[in-house]
Automatic annotation (TrEMBL):
Organism, as annotated: Teladorsagia circumcincta
Gene3D superfamilies assigned: Phosphoglycerate mutase-like
GO MF annotation list: phosphatase activity
InterPro entries, A to Z: His_Pase_clade-2, His_PPase_superfam, Histidine_acid_phosphatase
PANTHER family assigned: ACID PHOSPHATASE-RELATED (PTHR11567), INTESTINAL ACID PHOSPHATASE (PTHR11567:SF209)
Protein name (database record): Histidine acid phosphatase
SUPFAM superfamilies documented for this protein: Phosphoglycerate mutase-like
Family: Belongs to the histidine acid phosphatase family.
Amino acid sequence: GPLIMNNLDIGIEIQKIRGGSLINDLNMHMNIKLQCMGKSGSNCTWINGLKYYVYSAHDDTIYALFAILGIETKVISTLGYPDYSAATFIELWRNRTDDRPYFKLTYHQNDQNVTLYPITHYIDPCKGQVYCSLDKFQAFADRTRPDQPMDQAAPVCDATLQPRPDKPNHEYSQQKLVCDDFVDRSRELADQPFCDPQSKAAKGH
């Protein structure tokens, strides 16, 4: 079962830190795209012409996203992390029959294999379907939405590392450095896009 401490599901909390901001940013862009269909207002101009939106990522960024979707062990077969040059693609679709939005997830393993493998069917709520209802993706985003901005993580971390009378100052400094490194890395993982959606350099979702 899940590891619960202080009434918190630790697994979910880690997912919020490592991939919560990314999956919610993906969800936000898909929702804006849907809301702006057929509209020409100033709030929609920037996204109406965009066909794709690109994120620069590391292996652990992709792993964090897959972990939120519950497919990391089903999709990644090499040493637990994606290979160099791995990539994942999320496509937004609209069904002409029921007029509802769907998403399709594919995976590029490495530079030795150019095949794009469909992997949506590995996501449990998608029940084996290649095209999955977008509300399933939104549910994952809602569950892992960060509770507070990442820059508020530092004071929490600092509070647990106060100097102790029986510990030398240099040892506390080393612990503080490790804490700061963790916070910086968490920010990098959680705030992945670093891209102003209204910038000309922004690509689209």
